[in-house]
Design a protein that fits this description.
CATH architecture of the largest domain: 3-Layer(aba) Sandwich
Strand content: 15-25%
Helix content: 25-40%
CATH topology of the largest domain: Rossmann fold
CATH superfamily of the largest domain: P-loop containing nucleotide triphosphate hydrolases
Largest sheet: 6 strands, mixed
Structural class: alpha/beta
Shape: globular
Number of strands: 19
């Protein structure tokens, strides 16, 4: 049955092309949505950019016909603008959107409200109007569960040959719910803990490459003096140490304290500062913030001074990397501060605001995007497509800790990128286990219990 979808403003802010994503169904934009887009078009950052892009697309549709009676969409449906309130204009925009939904329902149309606003969805359901989230940019639950790592068994007699030559995929198997062997379903670049089937305490760490499972290349590396403490950190080190031509995109998910940012900075410093080989010109770090676009303009100073509060976690990690002696690290705070300042003054590490990334091209750059779960799929695409020759992009975050009002575990940009890039030979991804938290026992307990 053909449906009528009424779109909220936040759908067009997330995806300016959302009107074309409903196949042969009809799409209705309340007049209140157009007014909100008009109010947002001068906003700084991505909200303003999305509003302007949505308005430009609406203008293209307007030129093809009458938006009040409806214009044709590429999928076979129609798009129209509707006031639906009989001339009365209640103050809240949400109420006007609901009035449009009720007007469509009264005409006998099977109407569905599409909004990121959970409260508005509840209000619609109370009034007898169907409501849903925008699922076009939402990963499935199965996709969200992919961790980029697995455990398999191999026959005891073939276990020893792994270190020299690796093993074919078909040599590895898993156990089903009744402990019966079944073929392992492996994905390109997936990390594997291999166990000998007769003595399971024997393990090797490997990675899927083509039709084989191969040993880790950088298992013995110690980037900037940091040694891995768990299987997850060995896998993380492998993905980060690989050159950009082999692993240009690395996606790492995990709870706070699993050394995602710490290890990423350690590898960057190793490549740029400790053993400079010319692989990367610099380390570039950016970090989104849920209120970043609205608040950066009110902070004093230049760009670096404005974003410095958001980059404080980077400085915290540098303090540990530049002085590994925990007993002496903070004995001379001034000296430690000077060492960190030198790193920034020499341009070895640069921090930049997220809204200054768009439109640029990065060459031979080690780019770390921290807290990437607070990005939209469109923002993630805008960053990854900035990668020039020799650039490595590292996306870090925890999909369960999202600060943005209209993103969740399945619609955020980090999860979206992980799902879409799964299986690509250019993308290496990994989810750290909660048990691999290295921050403190309290941090591990809090992540598990709170």
């Amino acid at each position: 049955m053909k449906k009528t979808y009424v779109l909220d403003t936040n759908i067009l802010i997330q995806s300016p092309a959302a009107c074309t994503c409903f196949e042969d169904n009809d799409v209705v934009l309340p007049l209140a949505v157009l007014e909100e887009l008009d109010g947002l078009k001068r906003a700084e950052g991505d909200r303003g950019y999305s509003a302007r892009e949505a308005i430009r697309r609406l203008e293209e549709f307007r030129l093809t016909g009458d938006l009040l009676t409806g214009v044709s969409l590429p999928g076979g449906g129609t798009l129209r603008v509707e006031g639906g309130d009989g001339g009365e204009r209640p103050a809240p925009g949400d109420e006007r959107i609901l009035q449009v939904c009720l007007a469509c329902r009264d005409k006998g149309l099977p109407v569905v409200l599409v909004t990121k606003d959970i409260v508005l969805r509840i209000k619609a359901e109370v009034l007898g109007v169907g409501a849903q989230d925008f699922t076009t940019e939402q990963v499935s639950r199965t996709q969200a569960r992919y961790t980029g790592r697995t455990e398999c068994f191999v026959p005891e007699e073939r276990f020893k040959e792994f270190k020299k030559h690796g093993l074919p995929r078909e040599a590895a198997y898993c156990l089903d719910g009744e402990d019966r062997p079944e073929p392992a379903e492996l994905t390109e670049n997936e990390f594997v803990v291999l166990r000998a089937d007769q003595s399971t305490k024997k393990t090797h760490l490997g990675r899927v490459e083509g039709e084989r499972i191969v040993p880790l290349t950088f298992q013995k590396s110690r980037p900037y003096g940091v040694a891995p403490r768990s299987a997850g950190q060995y896998f993380l080190q492998e993905a980060l140490m690989q050159p950009a031509e082999r692993a240009p995109l690395v996606i790492v998910k995990g709870i706070a304290g699993t050394a995602k940012t710490f290890y990423s900075l350690a590898v960057g410093l190793e490549k740029v500062l400790n053993h400079p080989s010319g692989e990367y010109r610099r380390i570039l770090v950016t970090r989104p913030n849920a209120q970043f676009d609205a608040e950066i303009g009110f902070l004093p100073g230049d760009e670096q001074e404005k974003i410095s509060p958001l980059m404080r976690p980077v400085v915290d990690n540098l303090e540990q990397l530049l002085d590994s002696d925990e007993g002496e690290r903070y004995r001379d705070e001034l000296q430690l501060h000077d060492r960190i300042e030198e790193i920034f003054q020499r341009g070895i590490i640069r921090t930049e605001a997220m809204n200054f990334i768009r439109g640029r091209s990065f060459v031979n750059t080690y780019l770390i995007v921290d807290e990437a779960q607070n990005l939209t799929p469109k923002q993630i695409k805008g960053i990854v497509t900035r990668a020039g020759t020799g650039t490595k992009i590292v996306l870090l975050g925890d999909p369960e800790q999202i600060d943005s009002s209209f993103l969740d575990e399945r619609t955020n940009g980090l999860s979206w990128a992980a799902a879409r890039m799964k299986g690509s030979p250019l993308c290496w991804q990994l989810t750290m286990d909660p048990g691999e938290c290295e921050r403190s026992e309290l941090a591990m307990a809090a992540a598990a219990r709170l």
